[in-house]
């Protein structure tokens, strides 16, 4: 979600960013469950459960649980104020987590960039990359826009979902390929090609 986030903030403010974060929750969960199954050839079964207990999925669950606990605590005891030392410890912990979270995007860019440096022109200009670009930048966004235009959604929500639909291939495809034995060069090439054409 990092690529559309500044656009959502610029066009629709904090409401757009909130809609963006909420909209990517399901897709992130799908990538780290169904996507992992697709990469490994596993079926959703007890044997594949261990692969599904990965760090990104656990982070999503922990984030949702943290927000739920905070909302419940604020509703149950709205005047509660922790002691100064405990509050300072919590703020320090959250600052450290926020710092690590902000580092993930630059680290992902470095990983993808290092894989792009290994690419050759033959890996970028071929039928497979053309098919990926066609699907990712024309077919899928076109279908998404058509379906979203028919859905009874608020204007801002529809606009944010369309923004997500027209994005190029995600950096996560390289990470998934690295972790689960996929074609890393194909994934890196798809990211480069779809980003280049997405600018157009």
Characteristics:
200 residues, mainly alpha
Describe this structure in words.
This protein is mainly α and 200 residues long. The protein has nine helices and no strands. The longest helix is centred in the first third of the chain and has 36 residues, at 5-40. It is globular and about 60 Å long.
Note the total helix count: 9
Beta content comes to under 5%
Oligomer: single chain
For the termini, the CA-CA separation is: 20 Å
Largest sheet: none
Please tell me how large the radius of gyration is.
20 Å
**H/E element order:** HHHHHHHHH
Mean pLDDT: 83
Question: What form results from the Cα inertia axes?
Answer: globular
Name the helicity range.
over 70%
- Derived from helix and strand composition plus strand pairing, the structural class reads mainly alpha
Number of strands: 0
The low-confidence runs, each spanning 5 or more residues with pLDDT under 50, are: none
Protein topology:
Blueprint: H1 5-40, H2 49-52, H3 55-76, H4 84-116, H5 121-124, H6 127-150, H7 155-165, H8 172-180, H9 184-199
What's the gist of this structure?
With about 200 residues, the chain is an all-alpha fold.
């Amino acid at each position: 979600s990092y690529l559309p986030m500044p656009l959502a903030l610029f066009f629709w403010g904090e409401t757009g960013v909130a809609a963006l974060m909420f909209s990517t929750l399901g897709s992130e969960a799908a990538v780290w469950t169904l996507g992992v199954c697709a990469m490994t050839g596993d079926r959703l079964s007890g044997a594949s459960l261990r692969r599904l207990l990965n760090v990104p999925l656990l982070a999503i669950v922990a984030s949702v649980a943290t927000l739920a606990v905070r909302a419940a605590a604020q509703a149950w005891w709205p005047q509660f104020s922790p002691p100064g030392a405990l509050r300072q410890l919590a703020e320090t912990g959250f600052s450290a987590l926020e710092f690590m979270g902000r580092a993930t995007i630059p680290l992902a860019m470095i990983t993808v960039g290092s894989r792009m440096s290994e690419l050759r022109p033959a890996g970028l200009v071929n039928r497979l990359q053309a098919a990926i670009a066609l699907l990712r930048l024309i077919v899928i966004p076109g279908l998404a826009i058509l379906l979203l235009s028919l859905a009874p959604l608020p204007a801002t929500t529809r606009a944010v979902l369309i923004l997500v639909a027209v994005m190029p291939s995600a950096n996560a495809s390289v990470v998934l390929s690295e972790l689960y034995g996929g074609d890393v060069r194909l994934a890196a090439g798809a990211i480069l090609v779809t980003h280049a054409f997405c600018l157009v």
